[in-house]
Amino acid sequence: MPLLMPAPEPEILSRRSELLTRLAQILPAQNVIADETARRAYECDAFTMYRALPLVVVLPETVPQVQSILALAQEMNVKVVPRGGGTSLSGGSMPLEDGILLGMSKFNRILEIDYENRCARVQPGVQNLAISKAVEHAGFYYAPDPSSQIACSIGGNVAENAGGVHCLKYGLTTNNILGLEVVLMGGEILRLGGKHLDSEMYDLLGLMTGSEGLLGVVTEVTVRILQKPPVARGLLLGFASVEAGARCVGAIIAQGIIPGGMEMMDKATIRAVERFQPCGYPQDAAAIVIVELDGTPAEVDHLVGVVEKIARAEGATTTKVSNSEAERLQFWAGRKNAFPAVSCIGPDYLCMDGTIPRKRLPEVLTGMDELAKKHGLRVANVFHAGDGNLHPLILYDASIEGDIERAENLGADILRLCVAVGGVLTGEHGVGVEKRDLMGEMFNEIDLAQQMRVKCAFDPSGRLNPGKVFPELHRCAELGAMHVVGGALPFPDLPRF
Amino acid sequence: MAFAPADEQELSQVVAAAAAEARPLRITGSGSKAGIGRPSIGEELSLRALSGVVLYEPEELVLIAGAATPIAGIEALLASHNQHLAFEPMDCGPLLGAGAGQGTVGGLVAVNASGPRRIKAGAARDHVLGFRCVTGRGEIVKSGGRVMKNVTGYDLSKLVAGSFGTLAALTQITLKTLPAPETSQTLVLLGTEEQAGLLALRKVSGAPLEASALALLPKGAAPLDLGENAAAIRLEGPEISVAQRLEDLRGLLKPFGGGVEILGGESSASLWRALRDAEPVASLDGHIWRVSVAPSDGFALVSALKESALPLLGYFYDWAGGLVWLCMADAEDAHAKPLRAAVDRLGGHATLIRASATTRAAVDVFHPQPPALAALSRRVKESFDPAHILERGRLRAEF
User: Which residues form the signal peptide (chain A) (predicted)?
Assistant: First the structure.
């Protein structure tokens, strides 16, 4: 299943020097990266299986520069790929050979922190973790915590609607941002939301979040900050079977408890973690569940007791409760290192990302085992257990002929299985180029056409991040963006866009 | 003519036929929210047949229901499993004179209704996991899914939430359900000046107390007519946690002085139900506005309105000052210009919620937008409904 990107347009390639000249009029010389060696640094994001050398990399520092770059691209009919920290795991910011790579890394300032209204206004290149660091002295933090939070940018988080361990209780990016400033391909600036709640008319703030850079370029984000819970305690629970672990997760939620985090790992991952950095996970367990409860001390102590009881009733073979911050972090150390640890048991791995209804977990795991056997590969599993978001890690060896294809095919089969049981193709990594050709598993042509028409409303010429999310590119006119009834335009007197 | 299609398929045929002739359609469920927004025109398209809970899995925190399913029934079903719709949907009926308990889930999503818990739990839009609909092209479209974490394709749920049916007729909605809190208690701080009371609410919202509602009722406002300003703070959760946080809250509020009353059980629940449904202004006779601003700007807004000598009949603050409900004496223009000017100076939006159809047709019910945003909104509308047949005129006179 090789991924095909739209073929580079010779006409654009032939106008590269003109484009560079025009960009030099907008940006200082050091902000235009045209040299091939320097461009190499940008040839992929964290989805490293596919690479492309961008036509040119630009690093604007001001909103007017972004406006001018987009307007120029529109005028010259050149594609633009926006990029934040470049940590996308689905190729969302993979460059195009005939496209400008618009790096937002110089938009790295925190513009305002407003404790009274519990929000912060930041530029899109600010790292996720940097927001929490900037407000922690006052007891606040920014809740969504993707694993890449030390490196990923908030603008990229908006593009991908990033999640993380905290999301079960505190929501995804979309639930934690209040406002955006966005520049459209035509250079128009939009301000969506602000420090107040909810929008009127269409919720374009909600639509932009998770739109994978296809609708507009984010130039400012207003995020909600939360007061840090006074305490957090963890439980490390071991189970003799994955089913028992999954039942325990369901029982905790059925009891009305929404933990701050609830993560699960299978035997293959536990073993890998213990080899990589021993952190006391029970070696005899077929699955472990880490539960974190946060809140006031009395509440947390109470809930720890309740969860412990549920775990015992569900047949936990190990129940450890953290009694210090060091112990709590120790429980998490293995989970946080799961991905690097797994690379110790296989030279390469492909990290998949699908969500399923939680109760279908046992059959999905069995199904994944069968699929792995069929493709002749192994799979290690890490889950965000509370919300059914799976991360099967497909182990392969890129030096073995055909292994990459086998891994990709197994990954696609696993995602098809997720959809078949009522789940979705991606829980948090995005569609990007990675899952683009699987969109048809979840949506029919009419569903996809409607999504693409929304894209046309923002970017009629389809120049912003093309080749991502949608399996085939349609021109807006083909999608019937202009609806003609009986040969006459509706409302012919109204201006068209 | 009026249409009442029996199912989604028939609905799609009705809409496709109307689209081909550019005939506008007015979508109705129970009709309880017909009074909000600009009066729309066209033949009635009733979704009442699309009713009923399709799936409810409490342990998976998910419920799927037909668009015309009554909210009251859904809430009762959830309550029997100790769950709820955490965004605390407003019942618009009492405010609009349609009576309580008539709203449907489709209407709820179409207006993106939420209540006092909005500040902690989010709005309706945050709880819609997916939906099915018939667009203005007559096409059956689905979006989202039924799981908590999903970033597959554009989040069209956000777009349809609050779109007042102008993009598509919703047929089925998938909602996230959540455990209902074990205990709920409300502390009422009495007698502070309005500005100080609002400051107290903001202090609470910035403390690790997880308050789930923060409102301020000026002296004399129903339903808490205590003869003094009243700042109400709700704490929810396990009993032991609420008790401890209540103590912490008392400590935090000490510097503000004033008397304290604690409401528990039904008296707490009925207070928040009343505020959710905007009762303090609903009982007054006049135009009702709902204004969303930054919490620290709520007081400034009301002060500006008082200074400009507008005939303000009543008001109260929810969301720690971020939501201001206002009642103003009737006027042909509903005082839109000075009110919107005051809101624009601060940032935010004002919606005219209750006024005569004539006034709602003459005045922008929803906040005007800058040209680029207005143009984009229109293109988004046309991407779903190119012939402008669904709820024509409901949001804007021009589409």
Answer: none
